[in-house]
Amino acid sequence: MPSSKNVVSSPEDFDSDLFAQAAIALNVAPDLNDSGARPHDHRKGQLILSLHGAVSCEVQNALWLVPPQHAVWIPGGTPHSCRVTENARTCFLFVEPGAAAMPEECCTVAITPLVREMILHLAEQEPAYHSEGKTARLVAVLLEQLSDAPLKELHLPISAHPKIKQIADTLFADPGDRTTLREWATRLATSERTLARLVESATGLSFGRWRQQLHLMIALSHLAEGVSVQRVAGILGYDSVNAFITMFKKALGKPPTQYFSSLLYEGGRVQAQG
Question: Which of 27, 33, 100, 112 could form a disulfide with 4 if both were Cys (CB 3.0 to 4.6 A apart)?
Answer without folding.
Answer: 27
